[in-house]
Design goal:
single chain, eight-stranded mixed sheet, four-stranded parallel sheet, 14 strands, alpha/beta, 9 helices
């Protein structure tokens, strides 16, 4: 991605207004929360979410935490049972992320959930992030605001050192209170499961995950039920071809060869191919540069034998 000027503004009404303007324009901005600084973008805009991955240099498309104003907004996105409502009422706003069943028709880009039927939600307690949620009037996807693999940022200076030149704005509200990413608990059936320890101790032992459900887990991602062939320049018999650039296919990730658009469309196209009549899936070659590395990583996982 091309370098850009990164502004650092002290938290206040002007900084929040500028951050909301950039969010509306589909750009990611670095914001303080009570845990660590997060890289926030419109969770309903797939291309905006793809720019988070591009800025972080994230190696694969893991699910992202969606930050919302309150429980009411959260229930528009996920299905809450009594356990979830009790935990949310007790610990929100605060450093608790709940992984819940995704509500059908929820206004969330598929890239946010990495194609999974669940979504990770949090109501942050930090005044700056709450102010941006109010001003943007959108749920915000926000992983930690650091280059992938780097130490999580607890000050604006950490963000600037890691992502300077990659994002347009950092809102500076000083050091974060916890300095540790949120506790993640899954409530997708059965007893609550601790997916990631964090500042909030609920007395749960870490669960062994059979698949990835939240940030910070090492497991396989969503994969189609059908065999997937990569690097295809044309469809073979009984294949549904996902195109890119000059290779049109049955559907395309990006007719113009735009990697941001391709990343935004990736999971939609995989779901579409999985639901199509042909029993096999083929995918056109994707360049390895920039976001292409993350797209190819995801496609390799999708094509790997179960």
């Amino acid at each position: 991605m091309s370098a850009q000027n990164t502004a650092v503004l002290p938290y206040g009404p002007g900084a929040i207004a500028e951050a909301a303007r950039l969010i509306a324009a589909g750009q990611p901005v670095a914001m303080p929360t009570e845990t660590v600084y997060g890289l926030a973008a419109d969770a309903g805009n797939g291309e905006a979410v793809a720019r988070i991955y591009a800025a972080k240099g994230r190696p694969s498309f893991n699910p992202l935490i969606v930050h919302v104003r309150d429980i009411a907004q959260a229930t528009e996105i996920a299905i809450f049972d009594e356990q979830a409502r009790t935990l949310a009422a007790r610990h929100w706003p605060g450093p608790l992320t709940l992984v819940l069943p995704l509500r059908e028709g929820a206004p969330i880009a598929s890239l946010v959930t990495a194609g999974l039927p669940s979504v990770a939600l949090r109501v942050p307690a930090h005044a700056a992030m709450q102010a941006l949620l109010d001003a943007a009037n959108r749920p915000l996807a926000a992983p930690s605001a650091n280059a992938s693999g780097r130490i999580s940022p607890t000050r604006a200076a950490h963000v600037l050192a890691s992502l300077g030149g990659r994002i347009p704005l950092i809102v500076d509200a000083g050091a974060t209170a916890h300095g540790l990413e949120s506790t993640i608990v899954a409530l997708t059936g059965g007893a609550p499961r601790l997916l990631r320890p964090g500042p909030l101790d609920l007395g749960l032992a870490p669960a062994r995950a059979a698949r990835i459900e939240a940030p910070g887990q090492l497991a396989s991602h969503y994969a189609p039920a059908k065999p997937v062939r990569l690097g295809a320049t044309a469809a073979a018999p009984n294949e549904w071809l996902i195109g890119f650039g000059a290779i049109a296919g049955d559907a395309t990730l990006s007719a113009s060869g735009d990697l941001v658009e391709a990343a935004a469309n990736l999971f939609e196209r995989l779901h579409e191919a999985d639901a199509a009549a042909p029993p096999l899936i083929a995918v056109a070659p994707i360049p390895a540069a920039g976001l292409g590395a993350a797209i190819n990583d995801r496609l390799r996982r999708a094509a790997a034998p179960a």
